[in-house]
Every structure is written in C-alpha cells, then in structure tokens.
Amino acid sequence: MATNHLLEIKQHGQSIWMDNLTRDMIQSGELKNLVENQGISGITSNPAIFEKAIADNAMYDADIEAGVRAGLPTYKIYESLVFADIRNACDILRPVYEASNTLDGYVSIEVPPTIAHDTQATINEARRYFQEIGRENVMIKIPGTEAGLPAVEQVISEGINVNITLLFSVESYINTAWAYIRGLEKRVAQGQDISKISSVASFFLSRIDSNVDAKIDEKLKRGVDDINLEARLRSVKGKVAIANAKIAYQEYNKIIESDRWQALAAKGANVQRLLWASTSTKDPDYSDVMYVDELIGPDTVNTLPPATIKACADHCDVADRVETDVEQAYQLIESLKDPDIDIDINTVMDELLIEGIDKFVKPFESLMNSLENKVKLLSPV
Predict the structure, then answer these.
(1) 301 within 8 A of 273, measured Cβ to Cβ
(2) Residue 40: which H helix or E strand, with range?
(3) Which sequence positions are flagged as catalytic?
(4) pLDDT tens-digit profile of 185-221?
(5) Angle, vertex CA 164, rays to CA 301 and CA 148, nearest 5
C-alpha cells in the first residue's frame, strides 16, 4: 500500500489542516474520511471559500428559504448557513481536538473582511461568532492589520481561540506573537485559566513569490545586458516566500525562549504555532508541493487546498527542513536590496496586505449579492 505522506508529516510535529469547507463535503462523509483516514486535523475557511461553496449550490436553498420565511436580513441568512457548516465541521473534528489535548481539531471562520480596519467592530464580531457558534474548537480568524492586533489581544484575554490571518512580513508575525502573549498575560492577571486557549499565526507564502516574480519578470522584459545579472535575477524567483517563512520560524524560536513566554508556559499556555497559508503553487514551473516540503518542522501547521492535499499524499518528500539553509534565507532576503535586484520587500508586503483584504472583501460582497438575488427569487410574491 502506498505511503500517505500526510500521515508521515505528522511524525515531524507538523499538523495538516485543509483550506476548504463545503456542505456537500460534510454531508457526503468526505470530511469525516479525510479526518479519520487521511491525517487532516483542522479546517480553515475564508469568504472566498464560502462564496464558492454557497453561490451556485442548490443544497443551501431550503435553508435560505427558511431564513426568508423567518424574515431574516440577508447577512443573517448568510450567517445561519455558514455557522451551521462550521458547527458540523467542529463536531466532526471534535475527536481530534480531544485526542490531541486541544492542540488540533479546530475549524476557522473569519470575521467579516469589511471590518478589517475597525478594532472594536472586530472584537464585537469575534465575541459574537464564538458565542453563537458555541463550539470550543472553533477558531476566529482576525486579519493581522494594525487595527486587528489590539482585537487579537483583547479576545485572547477573553478565552477566544484566534487564527491571525494575512501575515506576510516577518515583522507582522512578531507583532502578532506579542499580541497573543499580551492577551494571555492579561488573562493571567485576571486569575483566569490559559491552558485551553489556542492560536495560530497564518503566514502567507505563494502570493509573495507571485508578487516578487512579477517584478523580476518586468525587469527581465525590459532587458538586462549582463548575463550574470540575468542569472542573479532568475535565481531569486520562487525563493523569497520560503526564505521569509524560515526567518519567521527563527523569530518564533526566539519568542518561545523569552522569559515572558516561559512564564506563561509554566502556567499551561499553548504555543501560538506558525501556520503556512497560501500554499498552492501558482507557477506551473514550480513543484506543486514546494510550500509543504520546504517548511516541515515542529510546532507548525500547514493548511492545504484539496488539490495540494492529494498531491502531497502522493509525492511529498518528507523531512525536517524549516531550519535548514537558514543562513542562505537571510542572505537571499538581504540580496533584494542590491541595486542590481532592487526589490523593496516592505513595499511587497504592504501591497500584499492591501490585496489580501481586497481578495476577501470582493468575494464576501459578491456572495452577499448572490444571496440577495436568491432571497428575491425565493421570497413569496
């Protein structure tokens, strides 16, 4: 029988979560099978995933109709559909949550992306989502924006599990880690238990390479006289995201060695794991599992879309690599400053955060429009 490399990865201290959720996956038993037999130990979702799941799926029509009959506004109908799917997924993953002593078995749901820059609205919605979904193993996704991090700190202090999403720069990851720590410290100061709170920091990968590669292609298109310079530019392509992630992991190591973290660990705190996100390879010239193979290592999560799950189960090359070639990773990121390459990594990260929020806002608004149209069709005349 062929080796399922997803199960092999687990032996290296990395959890594999799936970046997808649909009602047919829940009802057909596919999700249960993935969890029980394929090594999937968590789920991440986002507005783009729910748009695909709901927009053209008749499976949701009866519930939409029930919402219409109950006189619910469109956004409440949306929540009734999504919350039901999240609860059912949480129930399927509950045995993993218990068997792993609350390390895994989480299902992530994002607060509305339209409030990414509003701290108080984010806090309010995170509280409401957590309470209304009513499952210990739900994780609320909050974007790692300037407004998002104070919200993370507050809701962690209230005992809500948080997945901080849309992290691109190493600095944004560090800020996220300390927001988690401050939230735990606040909870300790209130005399509350911190041993049941969990958090992941979702660090995005392929979008970084897509952005940097496009900038390099533009330079090559304009023409490069020196053959050595052309080779240098080409050597950077497809390398920046993994190098950036390896540097973030080094920062993770520093943080968990700090006195402040050790004091929390002594009180039962769970580490905030780095979660590798945006892991489907966008360039067909690259390995379809390169964002898995290169970042396997302890205390990490990798969330994969279904196609990457299949590819990885089939041909991932499993070995601890998150701490290999670290010096080269620092050198590569530093080399972007060279006048010959001249790519400002901070500009890249800023562009990606703006784009990232937009990539969640647009499908969210599109889904609301689709639902609005369905509501009109299903409303009694």
Answers:
(1) yes
(2) strand 40-44
(3) 141
(4) 999 999 999 999 999 999 999 999 999 999 999 999 8
(5) 170
Other C-beta atoms closer than 10 Å to the C-beta of 106 total: 29
Q: 60: which DSSP letter? A: G
Q: For residues 272 and 269, what is the distance between their CA atoms, to the nearest angstrom? A: 9
| Domains of the chain by start residue, with CATH | 12-378 (3.20.20.70)
> What is the distance between the alpha carbons of residues 381 and 369, in angstroms, rounded to a whole number?
20
Question: pLDDT, tens digit, for every residue of 142-189?
Answer: 999 999 999 999 999 999 999 999 999 999 999 999 999 999 999 999
**CA dist., res. 246 & res. 294, Å (int):** 9
Dihedral through CA 142, CA 148, CA 153, CA 158, nearest 10? -50
Q: Which two tokens stand for residue 148?
A: 């998002």
Amino acid identity of 145?
T
Please give the pLDDT value at position 1.
Answer: 52
In this predicted structure, the answer to whether residue 295 has a pLDDT above a threshold of 80 is yes
Q: pTM of the predicted model, to two decimals?
A: 0.96
Q: Which two tokens stand for residue 17?
A: 């979560």
DSSP, collapsed to helix, strand or coil, labels residue 276 as strand
Alpha helices in the chain (DSSP H): 5-10, 23-28, 30-37, 47-54, 61-69, 74-99, 119-133, 148-157, 170-189, 206-222, 227-236, 240-257, 259-265, 290-293, 306-315, 326-335, 345-378
- Give dist(CA 253, CA 250) in Å, integer: 5
Q: What is the DSSP string of 107-169?
A: EEEEPPGGGTT-HHHHHHHHHHHHHHH--TTEEEEEE-STTHHHHHHHHHHTT--EEEEEE-S
